[in-house]
């Protein structure tokens, strides 16, 4: 360290040093302007304003509330109110419009699709997938194959009351018997029916399959719901077995399994959980995905 | 403040003694430095006149431009330069920028930066000394200060003396004028964001939106503070450019330079005469300190290149006046280069090298980017088409085996008239399309009408018949044609299959 009384000036720059020196390297004293220091103090003073305006200091039983009653929760509530005010006119129009009018009005359609898309992501995507692409046992809502009907009214009915949802009296209900598990059909009979079902949509059969036997069994056991021609019945939610779309898979093992265990998927009734306008928006959204009838 | 780029100690003539900025008695020194008030003296000369001209032109443009009208047709704003935040448009005479074209602004900023670099490589801090708003407004405020309180000596004397009625009156006039200009500066600023004549009327009748008053307040405050009080402190402590400039400059760049090869050793005219009579060396600098007195940032140019020097050239004017009176050559302080000073000391001729690698590079980049922007602007489409394929699901198999892909399509009509577009797709034979909500039939192409200056988003479905075998990804070109059948915009995407 340098002698405290002796001023040190760096010869090369002409700047005084702080007197701090390490291994011959001296620290130049290039002072900051004083106003800079005052600006720093000013920021401290400014921060006092926050104590006054916002909730800040903890006390024994609570905390200081701030001069204007600002609260994180009420701020969110205000934001939601603001959002509601923005959406209000659109929602009112949607609530007033008839289902089949919505898609003809580009403005309403855009609103319903945006609103329905958000509701879909929140409520429907866990089962039907983010893009409504479905999964095994959960119908793809993009295609034109509908278990319970693909018209706007049908879709609205299904969303409102669900499927096989016992808590709702108006729910879509029907159950395929467990032909194998309950011993209604024997294993070899089920194999033949499965091969016959594959043949309905032109899928290749195993060489030892007895299609005639399968057809006979189909007529007595399955046709009551799936129809004589296997095209299904939407009144009872029986799928069309002649098309290219298979909810549980088209391979022999999957079909045999379905005949064995029967049953069908369940969907909650959304009528009690979502308001009618949201269900309307969801209906239009699902319908407009491309497969709506 | 004490940064230097040259190394004069090594030269034949030693550089002038440098002042010691630290205190003499206390080795710890103060951590914070009190502001040394600068009292720039009035000066007239070539550079001062250039600066006045630039001040009048730039401030004239700034204050008057919002009132310039430009007819764009019915329903469109007729203000030549307008930032329309409500409708997401920027108008500049014949140019109308949409939000998605903000890259023009990026290009403009790159051009501005390169121009700054080029100016610096050619003639130092031209921006700082002549063009920077901080310099221009400070000049204006200094002029008012001089009008109200007198020149350098008067102001120094008055500030050191007691408060008198006269002094209070002068200060009041000065601050009132400063505030008026500052308010006008903020007022002109908000006019760029709204129809100027309407807003002026609203402001005058106190019916303008609150945000206009808030912005006028903010700019009044910043102008008044920065030009009236902060002045050179902005350049020395706040602005990043002096630091960058110091790193970018080189020994061939023209800078406002004290020609110490000619000026040193300093001595009075009388002593110089005697010295020369004895055949001894005498410099031209008479140490009159006029260069320091006129300096708006309070530096001594004779200390060499300096962070505080904004290179406005006023010291050149001051020194020239003195040299003329003494009958000596002008331009003891001048735009000069380090290289030339060293060469003259070695008895060599001056060289000027404006064409250097960096100046050529900057010029090439400026021309290339400027050309690119001009080209883009000239060939800018007045219609837009954007297509996004559904991410999930990528394709949908319909009950009859048809493969369907869905897209979100956005049309933009950037012209100021209604138009009817026809959308079609190329790349896959037999594709049919349907716009959700628009039609229930599948067609080869679809019509889409669009109002003036509007965009519209639709959901588009493409169908590939069951018998039409396709690879799992086929590139497609979407295009829209206007009423005349001319293709006005295209977009690329894919058709996906299993």
Notable features of this structure?
heterodimer; A: 293 residues; mainly alpha; Cytochrome Bc1 Complex, Chain D, domain 2; two-stranded antiparallel ribbon; 11 helices; 4% strand; B: 498 residues; alpha+beta; Immunoglobulin-like; 3 domains; 16 helices; elongated; disordered N terminus
Please describe what this structure looks like.
The complex is a heterodimer of chains A (293) and B (498). With 293 residues, chain A is mostly helical. Chain A is 45% helix and 4% strand. The radius of gyration of chain A is 36 Å and the shape is elongated. Chain A has eleven helices and three strands. In chain A, strand 1 and strand 2 form a beta hairpin. In chain A, helix 4 crosses helix 11, helix 7 packs across helix 8 and helix 7 crosses helix 10. Chain B folds into three domains: 202 residues, no CATH class; 97 residues, no CATH class; 114 residues, Immunoglobulin-like. In chain B, 41% of the residues lie in helices and 18% in strands. Chain B is built from 16 helices and 15 strands. The longest helix of chain B is centred in the middle third of the chain and has 27 residues. The termini of chain B are far apart. Classes of the chains: A mainly alpha (293), B alpha+beta (498).
Biggest sheet of chain A, in brief? 2 strands, antiparallel
Proportion of helical residues of chain B: 40-55%
* Rg of chain A (CA only): 36 Å
Report on the biggest sheet of chain B. Answer: 5 strands, antiparallel
Q: How would you describe the shape of chain B? A: elongated
**Estimated helix fraction of chain A:** 40-55%
- CATH class bucket of the domain at 74-170 and 267-288 in chain A: Mainly Alpha
Question: Radius of gyration of chain B, rounded?
Answer: 33 Å
CATH superfamily of the domain at 74-170 and 267-288 in chain A: Cytochrome c-like domain
- Summed up, the helix count of chain B is 16
| C-alpha termini separation of chain A | 90 Å
**Class derived from helix and strand content of chain B:** alpha+beta
Strands of chain A, count: 3
Q: Strands of the biggest beta sheet of chain A: in what spatial order?
A: 1-2
Oligomer classification: heterodimer
Q: What is the correct CATH architecture of the domain at 74-170 and 267-288 in chain A?
A: Orthogonal Bundle
What low-confidence regions of chain A span 5 or more consecutive residues with pLDDT below 50? none
Mean pLDDT score of chain B: 89
